[in-house]
């Protein structure tokens, strides 16, 4: 049987996260042929291109190249809609960093264009394709915790304690579409939807704790200067899953420190998953009155052991294999839109004082094949 032809990829947005994407796509997945990268700041794309031995391109060169099938959009959130729309109109499939857009209308338009043109949208995060959450899914599906009754997901970060150096390096976390419910909430929502399925109703509370902050680090060049914070940075939401499970989502960037965790309580056991911002484990399981059991994650698609290596880009590879094998890809537009609507639905519920009824539907993405596979053979799990 002839080897499947690789899918050519162009990356737009050569900032911080592009390094993780390029490293993973180039080194881990034979199905991807990364042609080049671009950026509105040419120096950044030049540096990335030289670092990874690919071409430095302009956005227009990527969009006009008939051989490039997938555009990976790693721009800042405020540019996601514009860049993804341009790529779709150019006839390219798109895989975008989280989240899909800044407004629901923008997200709906992107989904509509993709459907009209028969194109795919893929959405980060793709960490649920890592061994940790794949193992958790296996345990749930095998009945180890019985019927899931409730889930709790929370992430606390202390942006206000970092001397605002982080906000200076990553200004999008202060801008619409970039606050912690959007930037980090996607990891937890994609994981919850993968494990438990779609969400039917949401409600909750959300706010910007302070509109104005001050640079507190005396070593920072803007020490004592003030700056605006123009996005939600505290959100606590209640989730009703279509299968009957209840859940909560808490995302706060004003806490003392970070507590990344997902807990699922069932009729016969408790499952604790690690940080969904990583691809590994461990996974902890407790049944009846027994002791906690530590489950090492399946090594799919990890290359060894408890490796929490950065495999961002596996969602792109899964899309590429889906294109070649004519099957759905797991980091789908439906998943990305559903998670985006959950966050916006909680904020709308807070503003209106009413429970928000979800308008979108999303099935659980298919799990990867079970097994303990390492090395380059792991990619074969996507070829199905």
Describe the structure.
- Helix 4 runs parallel beside helix 5 (104-117) and helix 5 (104-117) packs antiparallel against helix 11.
- The chain is built from eleven helices and 17 strands.
- The longest helix has 20 residues, at 333-352.
- It has two domains: 7-123, 3-Layer(aba) Sandwich (Rossmann fold); 127-306 and 332-357, Dihydrodipicolinate Reductase, domain 2 (2-Layer Sandwich), CATH 3.30.360.10.
- It has helices at residues 16-28, 42-52, 59-64, 77-89, 104-117, 131-141, 165-169, 180-183, 185-196, 314-325, 333-352; strands at residues 7-12, 32-38, 55-56, 70-73, 93-96, 121-123, 148-156, 199-207, 212-214, 226-228, 234-241, 246-252, 261-266, 269-273, 283-287, 293-295, 356-357.
- Helices cover 32% and strands 22% of the residues.
- The model is unreliable at 163-167 and 299-307 (pLDDT under 50).
- It has a nine-stranded mixed beta sheet, covered by helices on one side. Strands 3-2-1-4-5-6 form a six-stranded parallel beta sheet, sandwiched between helices.
- The protein is of the alpha/beta class and 384 residues long.
List the helices and strands and how they pair.
Blueprint: E1 7-12, H1 16-28, E2 32-38, H2 42-52, E3 55-56, H3 59-64, E4 70-73, H4 77-89, E5 93-96, H5 104-117, E6 121-123, H6 131-141, E7 148-156, H7 165-169, H8 180-183, H9 185-196, E8 199-207, E9 212-214, E10 226-228, E11 234-241, E12 246-252, E13 261-266, E14 269-273, E15 283-287, E16 293-295, H10 314-325, H11 333-352, E17 356-357
Parallel strand pairs: 1-2, 1-4, 2-3, 4-5, 5-6, 7-12
Antiparallel strand pairs: 7-13, 8-11, 8-17, 9-10, 11-12, 13-14, 14-15, 15-16
């Amino acid at each position: 049987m002839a080897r499947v032809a690789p899918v050519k990829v162009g990356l737009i947005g050569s900032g911080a996260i592009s390094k993780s994407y390029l490293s993973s796509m180039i080194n881990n997945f034979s199905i991807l042929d990364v042609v080049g990268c671009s950026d509105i700041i040419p120096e950044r794309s030049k540096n990335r291109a030289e670092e990874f031995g690919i071409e430095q391109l302009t956005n227009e060169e990527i969009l006009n190249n008939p051989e490039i099938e997938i555009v990976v959009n790693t721009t800042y959130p405020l540019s996601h809609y514009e860049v993804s729309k341009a790529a779709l109109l150019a006839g390219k499939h798109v895989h975008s960093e989280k989240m899909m857009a800044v407004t629901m209308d923008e997200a709906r338009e992107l989904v509509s264009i993709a459907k009209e043109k028969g194109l795919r949208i893929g959405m980060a995060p793709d960490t649920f394709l890592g061994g940790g959450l794949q193992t958790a899914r296996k345990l749930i599906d095998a009945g180890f915790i019985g019927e899931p009754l409730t889930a709790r997901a929370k992430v606390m970060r202390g942006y206000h304690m970092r001397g605002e150096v982080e906000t200076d390096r990553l200004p999008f976390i202060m801008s619409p579409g970039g606050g912690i419910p959007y930037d980090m909430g996607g990891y937890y929502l994609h994981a919850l939807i993968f494990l438990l399925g779609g969400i039917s109703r949401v409600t909750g509370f959300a706010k910007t704790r302070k509109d104005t902050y001050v640079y507190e680090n005396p070593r920072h060049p803007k020490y004592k200067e003030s700056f605006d914070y123009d996005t939600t940075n505290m959100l606590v939401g209640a989730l009703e899953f279509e299968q009957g499970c209840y859940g909560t989502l808490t995302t706060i960037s004003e806490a003392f420190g970070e507590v990344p965790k997902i807990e699922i309580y069932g009729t016969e056991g408790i499952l604790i998953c690690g940080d969904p911002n990583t691809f590994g484990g461990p996974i902890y399981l407790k049944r009846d009155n027994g002791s906690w059991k530590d489950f090492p994650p399946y090594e799919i698609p990890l290359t060894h052991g408890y490796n929490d290596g950065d495999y961002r880009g596996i969602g792109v590879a899964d899309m590429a294999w889906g294109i070649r094998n004519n099957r759905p890809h797991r980091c789908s537009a439906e998943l990305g839109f559903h998670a985006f609507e959950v966050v916006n639905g909680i904020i709308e519920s807070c503003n209106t004082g009413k429970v928000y009824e979800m308008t979108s539907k999303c099935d659980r993405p298919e799990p990867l094949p079970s097994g303990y596979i390492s090395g380059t053979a792991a990619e074969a799990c996507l070829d199905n």
